[in-house]
Amino acid sequence: MKVPAMPYTAPLSDFRFLLDHIVGYHRVAATDRFADADIDTATAVLAEAAKLAADTLAPLQRAGDLHPARLENGVVRTSPGFAEGFRAIAEGGWLGMAADPAHGGMGLPMTLTTAVNEMMGSACLALQLNPLMSQGQIEALEHHASDAIKALYLPKLISGEWTGTMNLTESQAGSDVGALRARATPNADGTYAVSGQKIYISWADNDFATNVCHLVLARLPDGAPGTRGISLFMVPKFLPDANGHAGQANSLRVVSLEHKLGLHGSPTAVMDYDNATGWLVGAPHKGMAAMFTMMNNARLGVGVQGLSVAEGAYQHALYYARDRRQGRTPQAADGAITGHADVRRMLTHMKAEIFATRAIALWNAVAIDMARAQTDAPDGADAPDGADWAARAALLTPITKAHGTETGIEVANTGIQVHGGMGYVEETGAAQYLRDVRVTAIYEGTNGIQAMDLVNRKMADGGEAAYRLLEEIQTAAESARPALPALAGAVWNAAESLREGTEWLVAASVDDRNAGAVAYLRAFARVLGGHAHLTAATASGGSGPRAALARVFITRILPEHASLLAQAQAGAADLYALSDMDLSA
Amino acid sequence: MKVPAMPYTAPLSDFRFLLDHIVGYHRVAATDRFADADIDTATAVLAEAAKLAADTLAPLQRAGDLHPARLENGVVRTSPGFAEGFRAIAEGGWLGMAADPAHGGMGLPMTLTTAVNEMMGSACLALQLNPLMSQGQIEALEHHASDAIKALYLPKLISGEWTGTMNLTESQAGSDVGALRARATPNADGTYAVSGQKIYISWADNDFATNVCHLVLARLPDGAPGTRGISLFMVPKFLPDANGHAGQANSLRVVSLEHKLGLHGSPTAVMDYDNATGWLVGAPHKGMAAMFTMMNNARLGVGVQGLSVAEGAYQHALYYARDRRQGRTPQAADGAITGHADVRRMLTHMKAEIFATRAIALWNAVAIDMARAQTDAPDGADAPDGADWAARAALLTPITKAHGTETGIEVANTGIQVHGGMGYVEETGAAQYLRDVRVTAIYEGTNGIQAMDLVNRKMADGGEAAYRLLEEIQTAAESARPALPALAGAVWNAAESLREGTEWLVAASVDDRNAGAVAYLRAFARVLGGHAHLTAATASGGSGPRAALARVFITRILPEHASLLAQAQAGAADLYALSDMDLSA
């Protein structure tokens, strides 16, 4: 069967504009750590990745959907072309682009990794999830593993000879990770015997790497109940031999693959560990901390997956709308449906949402880079220090994850609508974007969990990191006000409402906070989006297409912050006033 | 393979409450036309349909998804159990429940048909689409067909011996119906030779009816271009013989079935007519008017399909959430996730949205019934007359369609989220609701088309029908204010904002209206939802679960009207400020 390729063109000019004018990439390039990654280098790197995404990965998107990964005699057979696609990613060095050069990485900023991951995900989300998992594992090992494990695993993960997975969830332990039952008992040789069943393991196996490295959460015999008694283990599919090659098979197996709504090219497995040999990563009982390193990376990465799909779905819909002729409008002489106001509304909103979401993801990545680069730098008088940047990154991560994936779902859904009846026909490809992206709001912590993380853990500083960000936004709006009074005023006021909402949340009870968490997170993303667009309009001198897009966002979309904040501050009482019995019948 | 049945319990107490306290069913029952359908009869009818839906149709939901209808040697083979399910619907008399008793119908109000259709759709949407098509055809024939056609076709459509379809769309003529190319030329015997290709024909064929009756739009030789030159023809699969039985095969065929995102149990076909024999329905060149009778019926019906899926998805999610244990909360001693504030938010919002959407659909149906019942009644001094009710029905139809289907999509999407990772696994069944319902925002006129219908055709009265409805809402809010000041104030103010938005729209240019149409329609639905919940809270004495649900809607969801109205009044200029070139890269 002939598999049609999705058209995809990487948004390189948007990346460049965002790096130059919105997210302050110059600050990253000015650090010692990332001194080699100046804007010209960055531009060249992104152009290279754009080529990979468009030429090599985009043709695999439909193949993964039509020919899902399957389990044959205990071994996963991947979708046609995926092995070659993975090899191209590995050979380009993209797996280790943010990794330590000491182990073969490129040591590039997370900001560039974020842009590259976006492009690869737009082209083929199911395959891109594999490198994303390896990237997270690389980072977790860099931070928490022993030197021996680093020396053995990192070069192979970075080269793509081996791939990585994360194993948290069990059937009774999803959002409540602390309920896990997997056990690890010490062996005489310093290794551990790991046993248990894990579910929802993305890319648990493949037929293009010579080993699959599972990071598994399990409890030691003296581990306390709950999350404080959990340890992290490296449990490879094949035990490394004396030369560090994949040797004897470990005592683990892929039990089954899930039949999912989408992302068919990515095998999602139930894994069984039966006294499998594992090595402790990090200190005993400190597994959650190590896993959080991987998860925070993955949360940014999953938010970017949402963005990826939004961009892919947008390009797909625009391509169709330009070609589709229905009725006549003064605005499209050729009869293309782009001339119709409501089609134009859908397309411009999609584009405006994508720009805002991309800005949030890149701000997040810049904060990560600055935190890393400045960790040991002396505090400046005015400049934010490493801890400030780390707090900024921590604040933005749940927003990037939840908002990015919601944007992916909404834009993909709108993309179907732009196609009309064709959107419901699978051959068109529009529906695949929605099916694929839907899981991103669930995995790596559901969006509800992200929102609770934002209003609880990330507000444990009394809202300090949030207020600092809001002050920046209002300062920028004040500067923009003389030239763009209406737009700047709207953004300033929205930030002020968000500040009031933040004050309410910080003072609220846990239940009230949690009842408003999702709405608050969305409101925060709206304000950040307004800030991004206002900055873009200002940088464009208040005219031209970027200013027009800013007007679309600020006039038509930003007002949502108000209704979201009303919901955020509505409290939990009404929700609990309905009994379980009342909810039915 | 064992196919698990979805749990489904018909919301009979909600129907009764809505009929008694919200939508004024007593007015319908007080008319001469519907005098037999008093509330006790209505209750008995709904209880009977509830039994059919839960016992007979719900077990077919998964079967339709897993075993799609397929085309074998030009004949459609339907999903396992669908033939028996259809027979049960037919034998219960549900196909003709609103039809004229002169031809075997029950002559019951559309209000009850709407509730019954909702239940059948919750249980098995793919199968329910078949009766919905027949119901629309029955109504179109009752209004427009010759007595001979009525006498021949109506009894068989009502008994379910034959089924009906509607054939509008061609590949170049979707939303722009006037671009159709199908031709009809007169034969010597008074019939017509109909030729052309039609796409997206729902239930174009089946293996459980002895004939399939296609209503086909085509152009006569002297038909003008555009929609004014289109005529409507009855083109049956088998030509009726002298005894009115299905005889010789007509010259038409099912070319292919679409491979769709969902609704797999419903065959969606490309149909080819090659000098097929047809009979004119209605006057020459007046086919659009006749088809609109069918489409208006179908638009209400499709809006109700959205509601159906919302209810099904809600029950499915609630069932899961009560059983799923994660973490501990003070609010759920057994550890069920219903105790978590964000899960509770999702469930209560779903329930509140469903109640509001059901009220809108039933208001719409009541208006249709009152318009029909009062058409020949003398004008009362105060009471709205038939024309007022008809205008009310016309105003509400696009709102019911677009908002009902959006609710279906949003609630089904939230239902997946409530399931966490299980929501992405197809076996769970949660994803099917989203896949199935997605088309409802597209077919029978996309939701964008509905919104344009609302702000153009339905506002051609200068907004009079809208203002009359808003006045009722504000009068009710004023009555409610002493007992429920906060809730009543919020609804009154929202209605006032909607009145201002309506004034703006009525005075605006076509482009500005169309650019705001979708947002305006959603805002209207929000206000109607607030009105429904406020009325429910008042009827409940301001306390108890209905008042609690009203607080959830009015405090947490109704505020969206403001941001939607801001978008509705933002105008088209910014959308068109971006050129086609600007939309890409």
Structure description:
Two copies of one chain form a homodimer. The first copy, chain A, has 585 residues and is α+β, with helices and mostly antiparallel strands. Chain A has a domain at 461-585. The first copy, chain A, is built from 20 helices and eleven strands. Chain A has helices spanning 12-22, 25-29, 39-57, 61-66, 82-91, 110-123, 125-144, 147-159, 287-323, 341-374, 386-418, 430-437, 447-455, 464-480, 485-507, 510-539, 545-557, 560-568, 573-577, 580-583; strands spanning 70-72, 75-77, 162-167, 183-186, 192-202, 211-219, 230-236, 238-240, 246-249, 252-257, 268-281. In chain A, the strands form three sheets. In chain A, strands 3, 4, 5, 6, 7, 10 and 11 form a seven-stranded mixed sheet that branches. In chain A, strands 1-2 form a two-stranded antiparallel sheet. In chain A, strand 8 and strand 9 (246-249) form a beta hairpin. In chain A, helix 6 runs antiparallel to helix 10 and helix 11 runs antiparallel to helix 12 (430-437). Chain A starts with 11 loop residues before the first helix and ends with a helix. The model of chain A has no long low-confidence stretch (mean pLDDT 95). At the A-B interface, helix 1, helix 9, helix 10, helix 11 and helix 12 of A face helix 9, helix 10, helix 11, helix 12 and helix 13 of B.
